[in-house]
Records
---
Amino acid sequence: MNALTIKGLTKTYGNGFEALKGIDLDVAEGDFFALLGPNGAGKSTTIGIISSLVNKTAGSVEVFGHSLDTARGLAKLSIGVVPQEFNFNQFEKVFDIVVTQAGYYGIPAAKAKQTAERYLRSLGLWDKRDNQARELSGGMKRRLMIARALVHDPQLLILDEPTAGVDIELRRSMWSFLTELNRAGKTIILTTHYLEEAEALCRRIAIIDHGRIVVNTDMKSLLSRL
Ligand code: ADP
Ligand code: ADP
C-alpha cells in the first residue's frame, strides 16, 4: 500500500500566488523519501496540506488510503508531523509536552507515559524531562518536536527541514536516529534543501521547483546522473 498518494495537487494562496501547480507524488509504505528544493519551492505548503494545516485548492491527497476529504481524522492519526517552527508551550515541562500530545489522540495516560519515556530516552532528552521547554538548546527543542510527533506511534513521519540550523554533530545523530526509525518500519518523508542530507538518508527523491515536481526518482539513479 502507498503511505501517501498525491494527485494533481494545486495551491493558490489568498493573494493569488500559485505555490503548487499540479503535483503528483507516490510514497510507498516503508520508504524514506526526500522532497528536495530551494527556498520558496513549495515544500512547506505541500506538508501543510498533508497535515491539514493548509487548505488545498484542487487535487487529492490520500494517507494509507484515507482521503483527506472524506477521512481526515483517520489520515491524521496515521501521520506525525515535525514542522519547522517550535510550536510548543515554552513554559511547559518536556515530559508533559509529549504526554499532553498523546492525550489529543486519546491514548491512555499509562501508555502515553511509556511511549514518551521511550522516545525521550532514544533522543537523548530523558535527563531534561522536568525542564521547561524554554530551558532547552535549539537542538534539544528540535528533538523534542520529533518525540512529540511520534508519541501516537504514527505509521508515517513527516519532517520539514529537520536539521535546518543544527550543527554537524547533532545533524549526524539525528540522521542515525531517523535511519533506525525507518529500519524499524516507519515510513519517513522529509523536506530539505541539502542534497547531502537527502543522499545520506533517503532511497527516493522528488525535486520540487516553483511549485512543480521536476524530478522523481530513486536516489541511486539521481546520483549517477550528476
Ligand atoms: P518552501 O517550503 O519550499 O520554502 P513554501 O511552501 O514555504 O516553500 O512557499 C512556497 C511559495 O509560496 C513561496 O514563494 C512563498 O513565499 C509562498 N507562500 C507561502 N505561504 C504563503 C501565504 N500564506 N500567502 C502567500 N504566499 C505564500
Ligand atoms: P545545541 O543545540 O546547543 O547544539 P544539542 O541539543 O545539539 O545542543 O546537544 C546536546 C547534547 O545532546 C550533545 O552532546 C549531543 O551530542 C547530544 N545528542 C544529540 N542528539 C542525540 C541523540 N539522538 N541521542 C543522544 N544524544 C544526543
---
Amino acid sequence: RPRVLSGIQPTADSFHVGNYLGALRQWVDLQATHETFYSIVDLHAITVEHEPKLLRQRTRVAAAQLLALGIDPERSTLFVQSQVPAHTQLSWVMECLTGFGEAGRMTQFKDKSGKGGADHTSVGLFTYPILQAADILAYQADAVPVGEDQRQHLELTRNLAQRFNSRFGKTLRVPEPYILKATAKIYDLSEPRAKMSKSSPGGSLDLLADVKASVKKIKSAVTDTEREIRYDEENKPGVSNLLSLLSVFTGTSIPDLEVSYQGKGYGDLKGDLAQVWAEFVTPLQAAVAGYLADPAELDRILSAGAARATAVASKTVADVYQKVGFLTV
Ligand code: ATP
Ligand code: MG
C-alpha cells in the first residue's frame, strides 16, 4: 500500500470547515487505500506565542476531533509530533541542506511574520517548513493530503528529498501533493478573498463552535451587492465560497445549485447552508464530547500511535545519519 503522511496544528479550540474539506476528509478516505500516518503537529504550534495549558488541551481536542471525523486508530497511525523524536532529528539535517534564500521565499512565512515585527517573529516560524519536510520524509510518504496553501511547502519537501538523494545516494522517497481542486482553498466568511484560517477566527466556520453562533456567522457572511446566485470566483468570491460549501455538503454540483437558486436570494442560499451545517456538526460535536470524557483513553491511543510512528521514522533517521557520515551508535 502506498503511504500517506499529513499533519494539523493544534492552534485553535476547533478545526474549521477549510481544514475539514481541504485535508481531513481526504485523511479519512485515504484510510481505505493507503497506509496512513496522521500527526497533531504540536512542535509547529509553538512557532507562534502560545499558552502551555491551552496547547495541552487543544492537542487532546484535536485528537478527539480526528477520531470523531473517522480516523480509525487501528487503521491509521495517529500520533502527536513531539512524542516522536525522529522529526526534530531529521529536521536538523534538512535545515543544513536548505538555502537561506530558499527558506526566505516561503510565502506563508511572509504572511505570518508580518504582524509583530522582527523580534516577535521566531526563528522557528522561519524554519517550520523544513521541520514539515522532515515530518513527511521521515515516513517515506508517497502522498501528502493538504490544502492549496501547503503546495509551496510540499515543493520544498520534494526539492530537499531530491537534493539529499543526489548528494548522499538514494535514501528518501520524493512525495506527491494530494490536493483536491474543488475544496483546496476555502475562504474566510467575512473576508472572502482570504483563506479561512485558525489564526483568524472572525470569519472561520468551526466544527466545535456553538451551532447557533455558526448559523449567525453564515447568515452574516460577506457577499456582494448583486442579487444573482452564480459561481464567479473573480467577481463574486463570497457567493462562490458559499456555493462551494453547499455543493460539498449536499452532494449537488455547482451548476445544478445555480439552476435551483434562480429567482432566489442570498438569504435562501445562506439559510440552506446553515441547515446542512447544523446537521453535519451536531452529531460530530456529540462524538467529540464522548472522546473528551475519557482523556486517559485518548492519551493511550496517542501513545500507541507514537510508538508505531517512532518504529517507522527512526529507521529513516538511522539511514540518513549513516549516509551523512555520523558514527553509528
Ligand atoms: P493556522 O492559521 O494555525 O496556520 P490553518 O487553518 O492554516 O491554521 P493548519 O493546521 O495550518 O490550519 O493546516 C491543516 C490543514 O488544513 C493543511 O492541510 C492545510 O492546507 C489545510 N487548510 C487550512 N486552511 C485551509 C483552507 N482555508 N482551505 C483548504 N484547506 C485548508
Ligand atoms: Mg496553516
